[in-house]
Amino acid sequence: MKKKCFKKTVSWALSIVMSATMAGTPVLADSFTDGSQSISSENAEISIVDAESATNCGDVASTEENLTEPALLQEEEFDNSEYVEFSGGNDAEAVSEFSDDSVPAAQTEGNTVVYLDPISGDDTNDGSSVAAVNTLAKAIDLAGSDGTIYLLNSVDIDESIILKNVTLCPGTNTLTYMLKVNAGSEVTLENVKISSSAPEKLSCTFSENPIQVYGTLTIKNRTEIGPFPGKSCIDAKSGSTVNLTGGRIQGNGKNGVKEGGGIYADNATVDMSGGVICGQVATNGGGIYATNNATVNMSGGMIYENHAIYGGGIDVDGFSNVTLTGGTISNNISGQGAGVYLTRDSNIIMRKGTNGQRCRIINNKAETDYSQHKYGEGGGIYIANSRNLGVVIESGTISGNSAIKGNDNNGSFQGEEGGGIYAWNSTVTIKEGSELLNNNAGYRGGAICIWGDSSNPSLLIVEGGNISGNTAKEGGSGIFAHDDMQVNISGGEIIEKSSGTKTDNMKESVIMLINRRSTSLGYLSLSNNPKITGSVVLSNDKDTRGFRILANSTLNVNEPIWVIPTDETQDSIAVEYENETAAEKYESQFCTKKNNPKGLVRDGNTLKWTNKLKVELITITDITNNLISKTENIYILSGKVINSNDIPAATNISGYKRTGWQHISGGSSGIWNPTSPITADMQVQEIWALEAPKVTIAKEKGCPSSGIQLTVQAQHTRNDITYSYEWYKGNVPINDKNEETLTVSEAGTYKVKVTATSPAKYQASAEQSVEILVTDFGHSYTWEYDQTTHWQHCSIGNENTTSESHTFGDWKVTKQASIGVEGEKERTCTVCGYKETATIPAIYIPSYPVTGIKVSPDTLTLTRKDETAQLTAEVIPSYADNTRVTWKSSDENVVTVDEKGKVTAVGNGTATITVTSVSGNYTATVAVTVKIPVEIARITIEAEKETLTKIGESTELKVKIEPENADAQKLIWKSDDEMIAAVDENGKVTAIGNGTVIITVTTEDGKNTASITITVKIPDEPVINKTKGFGRLKVRSVNQTKTAITLEWSKLDGVDGYFVYGNRCNTKTKTYKYQKLATITNGRTWTHKNLKKGTFYKYIVKAYKIVDGKKVVTDTSASIHVITQGGKYGIARSVSVTKVGNKKNVSKITLKKGKTAQITAKEIKKDKKIRHHRNLCYESSNTAVATVTPEGLIQAVGKGTCTIWVYAQNGVYAALTVTVK
User: Fold this and answer.
1) pTM above 0.85?
2) Among 1136, 1177, 1157, which Cα is nearest to 1219's?
3) Which is nearest to 44 in space by CA: 71, 76, 17?
4) Which long-range contacts (C-beta less than 8 Å, at least 24 apart) are formed by 725-734?
5) Which tens digits make up the pLDDT trace of 174-196?
6) Fewer CB within 10 Å, N side or C side of the chain?
């Protein structure tokens, strides 16, 4: 169907609502102090606001000729005594400018609204609420893009159409349904909103489901359907198809329906490749309910956050089928099958999609609440009575789902099984590519719970996949199977969520198989290469009921499978092989854990349960004042040896070590050897001993007179040990020697035995012995001496030998004597090495002293930096013994001198060079003058002011010379434009004309230049844009009493105050001129007091700005006429525009250039009838767009938008927006 798109220029919503609800009613956009208020409809609001006149309107008092105070008028320089029609530019001013927190009326800029009535509508109508159209096609044309269509009766669609960019809503509060897609029709929805919201924000009640599909309905992106409280959003009838490729079917999270909150499909097909179904509530099938051979295919999209008793996401029954190849079913809640619920031979298959995508059933929750018939079964999937195909998972993820534990009506725990899948009398097949991860059951069956009975046993087939990370509080975290059924596992991974320890706790089992209600056996058939990590629990009752493992010949496991029994029956069969040879060869494939009192023994082709022997191991965990121990039991088959890895490791007890085991009970006594076979129950305990201390002996030096001291050093890991000592020479005890030190004076072998004692009462002491050989007795001598004798000192015995005189050798010269300088010599004792020293007298010869010194030249002048000159010094006599001299400058910032008399110029100034003889300290001086010319490095200009504002005004420019001590030069000044400013030889600048000029100064040598920009800015005479009329300065009366009138005017930016003029209105016999009544500098209201009751007064307000000390008027208002209370006449409360052209009750209109439209308006009285001093007046804000005559006829002039003001004599007004195209 070809769809035409009409661009709407007038809001249909506004015209419909206003004609229906507000015809002839004035609406105010401002809330003024006189009690006016804003009244708006749901879709639009007409601005009828206080207004001021912008035209003369025949009022002679509005001209400035009638104002008093001629001097003031002369000061304001008015040059036009007549009002002119005011044009305020293109900015339409649609609301009042009074800053009194009033809120302007909403202009109806929204989408177009069209009413559709397939029964009584007529396509020649305009689509308003009282003139509905008849066909959907016409309604779409009128609504245009993003419009709204209100349905007054149900709509049947008998053709194939595409609906885009439109909203469909009920136009009444009761309907049979909204849309019906008849057989053979194909309807596509794209960016379509369909809900139950009727006008006036009411909700529609439907007697049938709102969208009924007999043909094909396709839902695409940005389409929103619902919510429809108490109804299925979409009712797919037999043979119909619903395609969901995008969009949203939304519920409100409450107000549920019995079946199918989102979609109800009866023998219909639902294909979902995108979009969302969420927030739905139902008893069966929160998201989708499919029945009677219905088909649900999901390859994309999301079904989430729906609620139901059965099937939070999807509920199918009655031979219906679900195929999941993509998309997500998540966060749904129900009592059974929170993700998907299937009954009555319905089937579900999860496989990989054509693009490799996979479906995810995640984070759904099956709750338990018996009062609501919620049994907490099947967080991901629940299936019952479906043996043929049942659940087949070829690919996909079932993860994070849960079955929540709760109480039944008797307070007992019930349900809470099958966090991932719950199956009853059904077949479940898990294949490679499937994942059941991190699901949780409050009772049993974290990933899968499956039940059967004798009349309809269940079947679980696991060929592959990953079942891991699941939890169940009471066991069977991976699989829980109950009663009559068979479990076949030939591949995949079934892995417990391990706590890190291997125990026989059935609650931590990964597979639990229970059969207590049936007299027949259930079987776990194992073949090929499954990986089972965790324990398998079997209920066994000898040959009558329970579960048994069938180990096929193809079974190949990498690690033994842990098996746990639930019953105490001896000799019941746990595992059955195909023959006796297979049992003998593969019996190691199954085992029990060490702490299980039951074990498996081979008997023919079976492994049977038997009782193990109990070995009770008592281990010591700490040794203090009391022995602290714990007990660990190991169960082992008779005649077997305990695995060394199962023997508890010794505890780390400081200072002790385990030395073995001993029998406590069990028919044996003495030491127990852990490597011996176990033949009876027994109890054994660890043997511990205190560790021996570490002992060393330290030996000090000694001589026969002092002896040698031996010291024992003992160390132990415990810090509470005390020690005792026994000393021996050889093997003979040394009596009374029990300290840690021993002094000996004879050579020999000495031994000490150290006993360490602990305050603990268990194995409290330990001994250690160590020996040492003593052979080295003797003195330790060193030489000591004074100036005349020497002797030897023994450091061990602290004794000296007899002193003797030194024996010296010959003298040796160590330093020769010279003229005036002494020498040195020494000799050494040949026995002890003592050295004696003496001096050698100096050599004496005759001397010639210095008697004077002179220097040349005696004066020196340098004129360049770093210039050098050589000074020469002469010592008198020249043959003096010492002719060496020193040089020094009095000011090294002026001149420096080196040790040879070479001077170097540094900086300007004078200094003295002094030469001094080393011998005799005679001096001579040289006066040095350094005179280096100082050049100017840089000049800059400093100005008193850089801007001159009057002709002839001057400013002095100063030049800053760097450095300050530079030699002075003449400065040359220049102006680059003497028509703007001139500069004299002293740097004085004088303004001549407007502009900018660059003043430059240059040194006489031309090496340095500086410049500055001077601006001459002589202000022009002030220019004031003066306005008159209504558009800018609006005045109105806001309160009237018998003796006073209060005025209020709009606040203008950039003005300094307001003049208020007024007087009584003219009568037939007397004319009253305007007089200046007040000057207002702060505020925008003023009250005229001491008036006569029931009398008319007229007012004008002028805004002024202070320029050069003068008050210059910038804006003049229109005049207003107000009557005081107490008479028989009153004032207008508001102005109502009832019609513009052929449009009623509108606030905006669009005209083509050259067209006209007549305004029909009236004054709404406040209390009493109105006596007119002036009729309604009209003014355009922009006459280049549209003009208006005194009679209210609008003429469209040029393209654009402007405002037409309609105002009464007391200042209230209405505003109309005019657009010209």
Assistant:
1) no
2) 1157
3) 17
4) 725/752, 725/753, 725/754, 725/755, 726/752, 726/753, 726/755, 727/751, 727/752, 728/752, 728/753
5) 999 999 999 999 999 999 999 99
6) N
